[in-house]
Amino acid sequence: MASGIVANSVLNAAAGMLLLVTGFASSIIAARLLGPEANGIIAFSLWLSATGALVAELGTGVILLRMLPQLRAEGYDPAQRRGFAAFLVTPTLISTAVLAVLYWLFFVASEELHWAETAPEIALVTGILFVIQSIGAFAKNYLIGEQRLGVFFRLTLVAAVIQIFTVATGAVLLGVVGALVGYAAGQFVLFAYTLTIIIHKRDRCGVSVRFLATSSLILSAEFIIDSIFLNRLEILFIQQFWTVEVVGFYAVSLSLANLALQLPIQLTGSLLPYYSQERHKGDDAGLSPQAFAGVIRALAYITMPMSLGLAAISETLVTVVFGEPFRPAGTVVALLALSSPAYVLAQILTLYLFSIDRAKSRLFVAILGAIILVAGSTVVVPQFGGEGAAVVRIVVFTLMAAIMLRQTGFGPRLGPLYGALLKVTLASLLVAGAAWAVLEMLDGAVGLVLAIAAGALVYPVALKLLRAVPAEDRDVMVNFAGATPGRLKGPLRSFVLFVAPVRS
């Protein structure tokens, strides 16, 4: 991976980790103050607003991430590119307004608000949260596409402080409604930034409206399927076949599983602009197999130990963080953590297919995944609840990743990658084993801290003994260590050379 993508990915990941910590802290506050049932109501409301926001995007986020680096390469200045973003935000505003009206007619006018029947105002706050989140998401994609990750990080920091404070205050004063108002307050920061784009003079930058409409149509179809059928649809099945309390358990499980998921996912945030930029430097053929394999290995170093390690400590982690009433969520956390590698790989492959104009291929994969998820959830969730939903999720994303990997066309040229991933997996299993062994001897918060520490100590040693880090990855890590502040430079370089020493 080039130094530019590494630097941008780190900044994007820092912002993503802030979002992760903020969401995690908010869920802990809500769960501790309001209990499992209220937490289930909040989780269902957040799912509705997030799903609606993804649908309302109409693929404009992906178009921004693809086109802004291309427009920069073609010589368009920042003002013109901002004008292009202003032009592109219009369909998002229209779709958000249409969906908000449909939501009002379908949910607020209905007397069967299953998840909010004790407090109808929850539905109203959920609708407001959807509008703010939908419009605010545009700012995120614009800033990433423009490579303005520093601005994105600062906005995220402000949003994080506001959300944690307002969720806590709102939960104490107004219960579930107050907590949801707190989530909306956190989203308002990016919403306000999008308003500055909306008022900018529009500029198509020579891009064909027909091209934008065609791209948006395909991406919208894919996003609608992903958003509705592949974005935590299990919550809807659990809510229908079980109780809102079980939804609360599953929501807690998702929050904890995100510990193994969100860091690598946030690191992928800069991949689409990177892919697009590299593509337009060369012969329009996309990335080389070696560069693509390097991206996957880099994320595997993080995803695999976090996934398997989290699975090993899941039950103890649930009870320590959320309390004894949430112990039933432990098994679901472990299963969801094990789904993280397939989900991250699917995300990497999705962005690559988008960058080489194969959105149609990704759409067909999404349709297949949606069919399997709905069919699997219909059969499994009524009998096995959250555990069954998590297993279905593992199957769906593993199958989707396998199909998309074939669609890259790299074939046997990725052969060396699989051996490297096997070594990383073995090292991660040793991490999980070490953490599990500690918890077998000592439970509770102290045991949890020692288990995490044991896994962290075992991992670099395991990577070293298994020779899991190839020379090309070591060189990238050494270069990155050299770009860090003075006092960190030496220790980081020594650590990298310990894990992957230079061999004669």
How do the helices and strands line up, and which of them pair or pack?
Blueprint: H1 3-56, H2 60-73, H3 78-108, H4 121-145, H5 149-174, H6 176-198, H7 209-229, H8 234-241, H9 244-267, H10 271-279, H11 289-322, H12 330-338, H13 340-355, H14 359-407, H15 415-441, H16 444-466, H17 471-482, H18 486-499
Helix pairs in contact: 1-3, 1-4, 1-5, 1-6, 1-7, 1-9, 2-3, 2-4, 2-10, 3-4, 4-6, 5-6, 7-14, 8-14, 9-11, 9-12, 9-13, 10-13, 11-12, 11-13, 11-15, 11-16, 12-14, 13-14, 15-16, 17-18
What does this protein structure show overall?
51% of the residues are buried. The chain has 504 residues and is mainly α. It is 83% helix and 0% strand.
Average pLDDT figure: 81
| SS content category | mainly alpha
In terms of per-residue confidence, which ranges show pLDDT below 50 for 5 or more consecutive residues?
1-5
Gyration radius, rounded = 22 Å
Question: β content, as a range?
Answer: under 5%
Head-to-tail CA distance between termini: 24 Å
Biggest sheet layout: none
Helix content class: over 70%
Order of helices and strands: HHHHHHHHHHHHHHHHHH
Number of domains: 2
Number of helices: 18
Give me the count of strands.
Answer: 0
> Given the C-alpha coordinates, what overall shape results?
globular
> What is the assembly state of the chains in this entry?
single chain
